[in-house]
Structures are given as C-alpha cells and as structure tokens.
Specification:
Length: 112
Amino acid sequence: MSLVSVYMAKVSSTKLLPIEFAVFRSKCLPAKGSHIDVGVSGGLDSMALLRILVRLRARLGFQLRAVYVHHGETGDAKTLRYRERARAFVEKKAKELEVPFLCVNAQPSMSN
C-alpha cells in the first residue's frame, strides 16, 4: 500500500490528524460563521485539502464551498474531456462531503 493510499484512508474519517490541526492552528483558523471558497482541481492535493477543511468545518463552524475553475473549450478534444471529467469528479466528491459546489467558467485572455 502506498503512502498516498494510507493518507487518503486516514483522511476519510472525521477526526483530524494531529499534524493537520497543528498546521491550521499555527497558520490560520477560520472564524465561526466565516465563509471559505476552496479551489479544487480534483488532484490529490486539493482533494486532501477539501477533506481537511470539511473536518475543520465540523469542528469550527465555518461555511465551505468547493470551487472548480473550468478553462473552457480551449485546446483539443482530449483536453476538454479531461476538464469535463475533473469537473464531474469534483462535483461528485463535493456532494458526497455535503459541500456546496460552484463551477466557474473561465476563458484565457487573448490580450496582454
């Protein structure tokens, strides 16, 4: 079993790991009733962050929303399919975690 698999199995529980709480306590703890939008790409890092924030939310009482930025129909068909699968994955996981989901559609700017 890989280190990633072990970590993801541990973060599926509702209890924070000591290192997770220590990092957030030392850097930033959201105030009760505040609102956090967390950017989620569907990758391991952002999914782990979302799960940690879900557990902190239960403990600290802040509002949380998962935000996926969809970069539109630029690129080839394979890239668009990847973006659509990532969006659907993030939306599904947000629903499972009972976190509101927002997809922001963004097109790259052609002007500099």
